[in-house]
Amino acid sequence: MHTPSSRREFIALTAAAALAGSARAQSKPAATAAAAPSGPFALDPLPYAANALEPHIDAKTMEIHHGKHHQAYINNLNTAVKASAGLEKKSLEELISGISFLPESAQMPVRNNGGGHWNHTFFWESMAAPGGVGVGGTPEDAALSAGITKAFGDFDKFKAKFGEAATKRFGSGWAWLIAKEDGSLAVVSTPNQDNPLMQGIVPNTDRGTPLLGLDVWEHAYYLNYQNRRPEYIAAWWNVVNWPAVAARLKAAGKKGK
Fold it and tell me: Per residue in 171-215, pLDDT tens?
């Protein structure tokens, strides 16, 4: 039988052991998140602060869209190209424009994730902070304005056609302004992460050089606009980076010569 003093000693020793165990548990390093797959593709920072497009696109949406969704496409793409010999040496544009020529096991992963990486990189660069030079409003570049007028009649008709393509895209996808091989401009729409560069995937009538693209996946707008896609589309025109669009048109013209 324990005496009172030995009982007190036992309790004290037990408490000390519990405290020591707790301290050891607290001193263990926290579990780290799994490292992203290494590979040739990486996520570049946004070309502006996450809140730069407010009030039209909110900071939280940009943080999740860029840091989570875009990063996931890159992680999956790196995994896909590592699984097929030789694919790691191809550029992103080579991969997505020649999907039909890739090993069959790589075609769908590259289509979804390579498309997701290319489309989102393009999307971030298509926008800029509202109020900046050439942002929102109508394009000031003469060649771009002339191309839009020639193809659609005027800028308002172009906006209506582009907005219709974005609104009527069933489910998830994109609306695009493209330059075709003959230099003419057209509005097209693609599902999921397809884009107009994808030979053998996108109909030839919808293929061309992307000049402007709008993401109409719900993750692009749902926090702020919920199911009101037309409202998101209308707000997005305020952050369109027209100088970037004009530069793409100029580059497409040089490429076609």
Answer: 999 999 999 999 999 999 999 999 999 999 999 999 999 999 999
Strands (DSSP E) contained in 139-257 are 173-179, 185-191, 209-215
Please tell me the distance from the alpha carbon of residue 4 to that of residue 113, in angstroms, as a whole number.
71
- Is-contact 192 178, C-beta < 8 A? no
CA 111, 113, 118, 122 dihedral sign is positive
What are the angstrom distances between the C-alpha of 202 and each of 73, 149, 205? Answer: 20, 26, 8
State pTM to two decimals.
0.85
Classified as helix, coil or strand, 83 is: coil
Distances (CA, A) of 164 to 138, 160, 170, 189, 214: 18, 6, 11, 10, 12
pLDDT tens by residue, 68-80: 999 999 999 999 9
Question: 227: phi > 0 → left, psi -120 to 50 → alpha, else beta; which?
Answer: alpha
User: In the chain, what are the domains?
Assistant: 59-125 (1.10.287.990), 142-256 (3.55.40.20)
Residue tagged 């080579």 (tokens): 94
How far is CA 199 from each of CA 69, 126, 193, rounded to the nearest angstrom?
Answer: 25, 23, 14
